[in-house]
Write a structure and sequence with these properties.
Blueprint lengths: L1 E7 L7 E7 L6 E10 L2 H7 L9 E2 L4 E8 L11 E4 L8 H4 L9 H5 L11 E2 L5 E4 L9 E5 L3 E3 L15 H13 L6 E5 L3 H12 L4 E6 L2 H9 L4 E4 L5 H8 L5 E6 L4 H9 L1 E9 L10 H5 L5 E2 L9 H13 L9 E5 L3 H10 L4 E5 L7 H4 L1
Parallel strand pairs: 4-8, 11-12, 11-14, 12-13, 14-15, 15-16, 17-18
Antiparallel strand pairs: 1-2, 1-4, 2-7, 3-5, 3-9, 3-18, 5-6, 6-10, 7-8
Helix pairs in contact: 4-5
This protein binds nicotinamide-adenine-dinucleotide and zinc ion (2 copies).
Nicotinamide-adenine-dinucleotide binds next to helix 1, helix 4, helix 5 and strand 12.
Length: about 375
C-alpha cells in the first residue's frame, strides 16, 4: 500500500514529504491510520544527529490513530478503534514485568529497528530501500505498522487529534511526578521549565495535592499559562533569583520536591539547592553533565536524585489516567497545543524551537471530524 510520510534522509536536513510503500501487518501487528501526531524534542534530537539511527527514517512518536487491520494473533483490538500510540515493549522481561516497560530489555529492537527480526521492512522506497521505523510507530506518516503493546484505546467521543502527545511528552512530565518522586499531599514542589514536560509535571503535582506548586521559567507568556494551569506561584528567573524566591516561599526550608525540564546545568544545580532536607529531584531533560558534591548536596541533607525515563510509565495506565484527569478539568493540556498540517512540519518544528508553540500537533488526516463536531 502507498502512504505519505515526512522523511529525514540525512542529519540536519529538513523533513521531506515522500510517497512510500508500507508492508502488510504480520499476525502480531496492526495497521493504523494516523490521524495526528505531536512533535517532541526527541524527534529534533534525531534530526540533528544527537542520537544515531539508520537513515532514512520516519520520525514521530506521539501518534493518535484509527485501527485499520488487526493481525490474527492480536487480542483486544478491533478495526475502527481509536488509539494513542506510545512506545512498544515485550511484556515478558523482568523490567516489563516489574512495571517499567520503558526499560524493556528489547526496547531498541522493538522501537528502533529499520526492519523486523526476519529482515522484512515496515516501510520501503520504490527501489526497495528500507525506511526506519521510530519508537515503534513513525507517526509522521499517514499509516503505520504497530504492535499492540504500543496502543492505548481511547473513547471515540474524544477529539482524537488532541491525544497523541499523551504518548510521550505529557506522560514524561506527569510520570516524573506521579511515578518518580511521588509527592505526598500537602508537600511543596518547584518545576523548572514550563514547556510541555514541565507543564505536565506541574499539573500532576496539583493533582497529587501539592500545597505549593512553584513554576520557574524565563518566558513571561509561559508563566502566565502556568498560572492558569495550576501553579500557585511563578518565578521569572530572568528577572528574579529563583533560589531566594523559593526559600522565601517555604519559610527558608526549601521545597520537598523539584523537577528540572530545562537541562541547563546551572538550573539543575538550583533545582537541587532549593530542596529541603529529605527532598527529591527528578532531572528529566536532555542536557550537559553537572558536578555535585555527594556529601554536601546529597548525604548531609538526606536528598535524593531520581532518574525517570519516559515518566516510568506503563503507557496503558498513565494515558488512561491523564485522560481521566483531563475530563475532570485537572489536566488541561489542550491549552498547550497548536495544530499544523503535516505538510508544514518544518514550520511546526521551527515554532517549537523558537518557543512560539509549546506542543505542535501535526494533522495527517484532514478529513477526520470529532464526534461532537459531527453531531
Ligand atoms: N526523560 C525522558 O524520558 C524525556 C522524554 C521526553 C522529553 N524529555 C526531555 O525533557 C526536556 C523538556 O522537554 P519540553 O518538550 O518540555 O521542552 P521545552 O523546550 O518546551 O521546555 C523547556 C522550558 O525550559 C525553559 N528554560 C530554558 N532555559 C531556562 C532557564 N535558564 N531557566 C528557566 N527556564 C528555562 C524554556 O523557556 C522552556 O519553557 C527536553 O530536554 C526533552 O528532550 C525527556
Ligand atoms: Zn518524546
Ligand atoms: Zn520487556
Amino acid at each position: 500500500m502507498k502512504i505519505k510520510a515526512a522523511v529525514i534522509n540525512s542529519v540536519n536536513e529538513p523533513y521531506v514529504m515522500e510517497e512510500l510503500n508500507i508492508s502488510e501487518p504480520n499476525d502480531n501487528e496492526l495497521l493504523v491510520k494516523m490521524v495526528a501526531s505531536g512533535m517532541c524534542h526527541s524527534d529534533v534530537a534525531v534530526r540533528k544527529g544527537f542520537n544515531e539511527f539508520p537513515l532514512p527514517i520516519i520520525l514521530g512518536h506521539e501518534g493518535s490513530a484509527i485501527v485499520e487491520k488487526v493481525g490474527s494473533n492480536v487480542q483486544g483490538f478491533e478495526i475502527g478503534d481509536h488509539v494513542v500510540v506510545s512506545f512498544g515493549y515485550c511484556g515478558q522481561c523482568d523490567n516489563c514485568r516489574t512495571g517499567i516497560p520503558g526499560s524493556c530489555y528489547d526496547w531498541s529492537e522493538i522501537n528502533m529497528s529499520a526492519t523486523r527480526e526476519d529482515g522484512s521492512a515496515y516501510f520501503t522506497r520504490e527501489d526497495g530501500t528500507p525506511v526506519t521505523r521510530f519508537f515503534g510507530q513513525s507517526s509522521f506518516s499517514t499509516h503505520s505498522i504497530v504492535g499492540s503493546s504500543s496502543l492505548t484505546k481511547i473513547d471515540k467521543s474524544l477529539d482524537l487529534r488532541l491525544f497523541g502527545p499523551l504518548g510521550c511528552g505529557f506522560m514524561t512530565g506527569s510520570g516524573a511526578v506521579l511515578n518518580g518522586i511521588k509527592p505526598e499531599p500537602g508537600s511543596t514542589i518547584a518545576v523548572f521549565g514550563t514547556g510541555a514536560v514541565g507543564m505536565a509535571a506541574m499539573m500532576a503535582a496539583k493533582v497529587a495535592g501539592c500545597s505549593k506548586v512553584i513554576a520557574v521559567d524565563i518566558h513571561e507568556s509561559r508563566l502566565d499559562l502556568a498560572k492558569q494551569l495550576g501553579a500557585t506561584h511563578v518565578i521569572n528567573s530572568k528577572n528574579e533569583n529563583a533560589q531566594e524566591q523559593i526559600l522565601a516561599l517555604t519559610s527558608g526550608r526549601g521545597v520537598n520536591y523539584s523537577v528540572d525540564t530545562t537541562g541547563v546545568g546551572q538550573v539543575v544545580r538550583t533545582a537541587i539547592e532549593v530542596l529541603a532536607v529529605g527532598g527529591s529531584i527528578a532531572p528529566v531533560a536532555v542536557g550537559k553533565d553537572i558536578t555535585i558534591s555527594t556529601i554536601n548536596d546529597l548525604a548531609m541533607k538526606n536528598r535524593n536524585i531520581v532518574g525517570v525515563l519516559m515518566g516510568r510509565a506503563i503507557p496503558q495506565l498513565s494515558i488512561r489516567q491523564m485522560v481521566d484527569f483531563y475530563e475532570a478539568g485537572n489536566f488541561s493540556f489542550d491549552k498547550l497545543v497548536e495544530y499544523y498540517s503535516i505538510d508544514d512540519i518544518n514550520q511546526a518544528e521551527a515554532d517549537s524551537l523558537s518557543g512560539k508553540t509549546i506542543k505542535p500537533i501535526l494533522i495527517m488526516d484532514e478529513s477526520y471530524q470529532p464526534e461532537v463536531a459531527k453531531s
